Amino acid sequence: MRLIISGGASGEEQMAMDESMLILLSNGLLEPTVRIWNFLPTTLSIGRFLAYEDWVDEGKRLELSIPVVRRFTGGGPALHDEKGEITWTIVGNFSMTEGYAIAGKPIVNAAKELGVSATFTPINDVEAEGKKICGMAGATRRRATLIHGTFMFDTDLSMLSVIRLPSAKESVRGRPSSRVTTISLLLGRRVSREEALTAIINGFSWLGLKEGNTTQIERDLAKELSFKYSNEKWTKIR
Length: 238
Description:
The protein has nine helices and eleven strands. It has helices at about 10-25, 50-55, 60-65, 95-115, 165-175, 185, 195-205, 215-230, 230-235, and strands spanning about 1-10, 35-40, 45, 70, 80, 85-90, 120, 125-130, 130-140, 145-150, 210. An eight-stranded mixed beta sheet has the order 7-8-9-10-6-2-1-11, sandwiched between helices. The chain has a three-stranded mixed beta sheet with strand order 4-3-5, covered by helices on one side. The protein has a single domain, classed as 2-Layer Sandwich (BirA Bifunctional Protein, domain 2), CATH 3.30.930. A hairpin with a 2-residue loop joins strand 8 and strand 9 (about 130-140).
């Protein structure tokens, strides 16, 4: 399986690249791939089917100058700390349920390498000590599926204040900050990006990774798709 290490870029660029990979794989024009990357700057992402006003605290978001991008995948909102999270994508010919399980194993492995005992909790979370350290979301096109998710090694959880929960959900689930944690908090020491990146790559290594680069067709298609993710009509479509 191809490994791409992309580095940091805006939410618009990252979502466009992920969508281009899914489209191309679904048409037989791309090999299965693991891509490791991060949002730059810190970004709030929301799932494709969420109502913007229900899930985004617009006042707090503007106060903290955090951009927001709507994903093409489902799932809830996620705060992506440019300094404390590594984001990853896996795209292949598997079902959504299979994809979550395949992706969960590397995250559990990465946490273990760093000294944290974690478990994959279906449908799409990895938890340690009863709190989430990784959330995932996915999309399927024909027989191809893309799963992307987080690895919160040192996320600043105070920034989760930009996420608003509908009152009915908050009464049942509690505030987001009460349900998530980071590798650094669990270990009682600051985990560096270099440590986390090495652990993530090693975690995915069971898939037989071979490092490569994005292709010209991926980059061209991502450029065509990027207009959608920078358009407020898409961001606030719901």
